[in-house]
Amino acid sequence: MCFVARRLSLVGTFFVLLVTASNALATASILPSTQALALLVKEISGQVNQPLLPANVSPHDFSLKPSHIRRLHSAELVVWLGPELEPYLAKTMARIPAHQQLIISNGGSGVGVSYGQHPWTSPAYLLQGVNQLSQRLDIKRDNAAWLEAMERLQLELTQHLQMLNHKGQGYLIYHDGLDGFESHFGLTHLASFTGADDQAPGAKRLASIAEFEKTGRVACILVDHEVKHKLVDAVLGPDVKRIQIDILAANSASLTEYLTALQQALLSCGR
């Protein structure tokens, strides 16, 4: 091979390596801590990233294994909820450089981020996360379609809530974990079996819930993966509709599908 041809071959090889490196940066190794955040990452990158936690596991109480720690250190960017919501990650993330992590903040969305709460059920919180990640990855995004979809959900939920109120009814939830969703859409549950802190219900709370049913005010109860069906059945009769909800987004393929599923659960209450 002549010198010129060899030189062109080397230049071509360098160009291919440069393009490959650029593509690798564009599709950086992103590690979301939870399934809800994996959907958020997918919203921006279009790629499915396996979350650190199994899809059906709550992020509040989790013990890291050595394999989890290795995944955290090898990721180019870790997207997580912050030390208040994921205290099990705090120690490890403190040793990871700031440019290799992104904490989804409430960003004025009005959603609390204290331990035990689930702000990722809020469209405003998720949109904040979408915008944060878009800026970090330098990706331009138009949120018009998202906002329009949320407006449709709002309209349908408002109409249904008015119907329930007209009948003097409302809904119960087993675990007080819909705070973000309820705050965004102006919803309020009658009562919950367990609070955001996951404390077992006392006799007074159970008696109060039973009284709601006696007065005919309970249209349904929303139950999640943590529900103890025997406890619910001991307090509520079979006429109260049990509606399964997926707070952790384990069964959703997109953020819109996740929020729509929560909306549909509430729309089926009292019907």
What is the strand and helix layout of this fold?
Layout: H1 3-26, E1 30-32, H2 35-45, H3 66-74, E2 77-80, H4 87-93, E3 101-103, H5 123-137, H6 144-166, E4 170-175, H7 179-185, E5 192-194, H8 203-214, E6 218-223, H9 229-235, E7 241-244, H10 255-267
Parallel strand pairs: 1-2, 2-3, 4-5, 4-6, 6-7
Helix pairs in contact: 2-5, 6-10
Task: Report on this structure.
The protein is an alpha/beta fold. It has two domains: 22-137, 3-Layer(aba) Sandwich (Rossmann fold), CATH 3.40.50; 148-267, Nitrogenase molybdenum iron protein domain (Rossmann fold), CATH 3.40.50.1980. It contains ten helices and seven strands. The strands form two sheets. The protein has a four-stranded parallel β-sheet. Strands 1-2-3 form a three-stranded parallel β-sheet. Strand 4, helix 7 (179-185) and strand 5 form a beta-alpha-beta unit. Helix 2 (35-45) crosses helix 5 (123-137) and helix 6 runs parallel beside helix 10. The longest helix has 24 residues, at 3-26. The chain is globular, with a radius of gyration of 23 Å.
